[in-house]
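Case study: Lysoplasmalogenase.
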Amino acid sequence: MIYLPILLGLGFAAAYFPLSSTPQSWARSIIKTVPLLAFALAAYLAGLGPFLVVGLFLSALGDFGLSRDGDAPFLYGLSAFALSHLAYILHFLGVSDAQIWDAFSTVPVAAIILVTLMVSTELWLATHTGHLQWPVRIYVVIIGTMGLSALTLPFGWTVVGAGLFILSDVILAINLFRMSDTHHHRLKAGYAIWAFYITGQALILWGGLQA
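Here is what the predicted structure looks like once written out:
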């Protein structure tokens, strides 16, 4: 029963690949939203804890928001993902029974690289986001904190999943704010964003199931 929604989610995720570069439509939005809804259902049925379930569900809402055009849906999607990361932070720290700063003593190199990436966004991202500068800045801090909380866990599927989630958001930021609509890598970037994102979320769920 648990694996049925996971397979459903992966099936819809695969179906979204050819749609990732197509214009906005309700069918596209629905197909993009289903995978994380299915993952959230699987987490709920498996009894993986409220924060993981909420994090996956909020990610589905974020997927829907980012599938629509305009600043308002973008901010809605960004807010939903920010809240999902906060839920993941609570989940990861609850599992590891550690504090955020413990990442700097257990895996200092990875933690420093992550913080350096967060700070670097002031140079290559923040100045290119216009009136969305502060929402993006806040989001960067939250997703970076999510990454640090994942680093308090033993290395495994969840840590890899969190890393892929962050990687997908880095590519998404470049795609949205640094690439023109006619950039020759834009199509490839769209595929990479979805591949890293859905794999990362699936591994976070899988890590919860394995634990």
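For the exam, be able to explain this: The chain has one domain: 3-210.
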